[in-house]
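Please, structure for the following, as tokens.
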Amino acid sequence: QYQFKPLWVDGEEGYMSSEREGRRAAFTVRAFRAVIKVLMDDGHWHTLSYTNPKEWLGTKGPVVNDTVFDGETYDSRINDSLAGWRLPNYDDDEEETGKSRWKIVPDISYQNWSKTAKLQAQPIYPMRVQEIRKPVEVTVVGKNHLIIDFGANLVGVCRFLVPKGARGSNFTVRHAEVKVHEPFGVYGSDDDSYLYYWTLRDAKQTDTYIFSGRKEELGTVWKPKFTYHGFRYIEITNWPCNNGGEEDDQWPDHLTCKQMPQVELLHHRTDFPQIGEFRTSNGLLNAFHRMAAGGLSSNMNSITTDCPQRDERVGWLGDAGISADMASMTYDTNAFHNAYLDLIVDDLDEHGNIPDVVPHLRYGQNPGDPSWSSALVTIMYSRYHFANDLSSYREHRDDVKLYLEGLWRFVMEEQGGLYRMLAVGVQFGYIGEWVANVDADRPTITYTSVFAWLLALQKSAEMATAAGDEEYAAIFSKNATEVAELFTDVYFNNITKWFENQQQTAMALGLRLNVLSPEDATLASQNLYNRITQADGGNWTTGQIGFKFLLQQLAKYGYGNVSADLVTATQFPSLGYERLNTYEPGITSLWERWDAFKIQTKGMDSRNHQWSSTVGTFIYEMCGLVSNQEKGLGFSFEKPLQLRAQGCCGLLKHACAKTNNANGPLSFCWSIEEVNRTDVRARIPTGTLSVIEVPLRLLQQDADGNNGDSNGMLPLQLRMKEKGEVFFEGMIFKSNTTLEHKDVPGLHALAFDHKAAAIKLTVASGVFHFQLDEAQ
């Protein structure tokens, strides 16, 4: 049984005429295209065909209205009239007229879009229910009026046991993320002040059930089939609290409900397996993992979307690209991301233009802002970076070249180069840094666009080289070198060592490109450190783009403690505040804006946005996967995996991170809870070489108290065990490098790195349990 919406055709494109100047336009074709095969009694498969139109009939079903944004209306009375339609020898005549209610289904295969559309099997995991949640609280707030809290902000629909109700009566279910609270209003001050609907904008998120009134209806199951919602709360009105009897209207106690709803939340998403997680000694970071993974999960329903609740829910490429790394470390997104790359290429035109939104409808421009459209390369690189998967690059190498040529042509040829663009005021891109915590932080839009362009060139050159694609590697590398020179000449002050507007985003982006000499990079990172700790009072100022790179660049240049402080801050606005505020503490999602409680953000304040999930990628680094963001997860002996007990940034007493690389499951756990002992457990996949760095705690303590000089604690007595067996015991001196040790299967080398004040173990694949004890 299928229900289809009316076709409002503009020419033959199959687009619906729109409201709000196109922002609510949608594909709404009354069409069904499929290959249908029937298993016959004799065991052979029979393919149904459309040779005789009179054999194909259709009629109006009980789903009388449905949209992704507005919800579904189900009329059970119509279902009654279709009783038995699934059975053989079904009599389709109406009792009243004796005529069939079923009409011939028209053939629309003559239309151009139908002729050119390619039918293929779904290349990704199907949508499936991941979790079933029962209400944590049900409140009767008025006559037949209830508020239900499911305890977490998720994506899906509600499943009801149908109560007793009078024929033709109905109940409605509105879905929302948040209860009304200050500064948005006073909860319960009137009948329309219980749930906060501003985060939905024009989306109604309302489902309606119309009763047939039959006895057989009672206790049946109803859930919407052709919509989904983003919500934690539902508001039910017209619920038959008094068993659907006539006395409902006279029921004296409006806060009593004799027939309470039997309802569950069905959370669904694309059914890819979860492969990654982390657990630490810091409860706030653990909460962030649940929130980040949930934000991704809620926005991966067949395609990647920005948010699941308001009148948007589209494939903004900025969100998709920024969160690709965290998605790759948390879920098996190989098929999902490859399929989405195919969709991006479908929207790539002959000039190399890619829109901001894929599939391109309702929002965004074409050509898109480079910080968004470069997701073609970003997602592809994520597949290579974390899974050694170059298949998407090999398949789309010409598409990458076409896209990058389009950016080059616009800047270097059509506009006469970056200098001329800036001189005459031509802007490259139109979005730039998005939802910045402080507006003054935003670099110029052209700055972020050139950054995205250069980073895409660098990543494309790396993928081409890894794929043995010498021709394209040479092209991408040459262009990257030229653009890098332009970028530093225009945007880096060689005297003051600042990038562009001297704010957090500009500095983090400039450092990420690795275009400075080591000396200049060190000085620029010091400027960034001073910017945060002094001028900005230790607070975030970045938005969506800068957020991804700021924490990593601070840690890379030795300011990991600042990164840790920023991540775990709890003042408003911050990630910690999202989790710990008393109004709406985050559990399974992250906000679109850290300042969502400001009244002026209404309508742009989603409580379930995927871009913030990128914080999870950095927390993996805090757990010890220190090379994951710039060097990947190590999938060959030429590209070893870098692991570090104590992680990148201090703060933690123990941590455990799990994910997969190209060769299989990877886990790294460590603890420094015992005095002068470091405990390390690692599972290294087959074919992977890893360097495990174990900082020497006594040397760290000595350096902290002696302006970075740890020589006072040398020589140092060490004992090292693997699975309880001592394999090294002795003194280490400043002159030590390689340490002689007993044979340990899989241990290739043991060394003391004085500069890093750490022991380094080079290990191949296997399962290891190391213990390191220190004494002076």
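Residues 1-28, 705-709 have pLDDT under 50 and may be disordered. The two ends are 77 Å apart (CA to CA).
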